[in-house]
């Protein structure tokens, strides 16, 4: 198991994050592409490699949540697919192994007494577009030695999402990120999916949920932190302690080191 941190919005440069990562004796930083300075255009692969060797710290990549590889709008779907391919190239050149991504559950129409999800109503088309996109991505990422890990966003328990994951699992390089805080938000309804695909989990996002908000200090809510850390250790996962401030990150790392004893 390796522990890492997210790129923190309070820091204005990668080097500030690297210094904090080094101070906390962590193994890696997850570059969040929602922040403009952590994209291929602003951060060349060679610069990442130089930083990696200077600080002895690895990286993972977090793709923007809005990417929709099953979009019913062809040009949007193609644009998101192209950006994923560009990111895979960037990761490979920077010797980054893991890209964290999301499975967009789509939009819904609110009726007087229910919600109608478009991806559920048009599930065959949704699944086919998603499958075709991932077919291209898995083939390309496999050639470059990059692993794509699909993160739960309190959506893996939705029937049409669960069935889509089943279909994607046909690919040998289908991998998952277990976000344990998002799972808690969903009332732990996503956990059965992760137990079913336990041998496909490569990455974890660790944070707590206090019935009001997630991304909270570990051990402050309902997530069984030690149990999740034990799973991560047993499966040799990379674990991002995904809290949002430098102070909470330091407190979380200290709490893990005080409360979790590696077996």
TrEMBL record:
Superkingdom to which the source organism belongs: Bacteria
Family matches, as Pfam families: AP_endonuc_2 (PF01261)
Domain Xylose isomerase-like TIM barrel: 19-254
Protein name per its UniProtKB record: Xylose isomerase-like TIM barrel domain-containing protein
Species whose genome carries this gene: Paenibacillus albiflavus
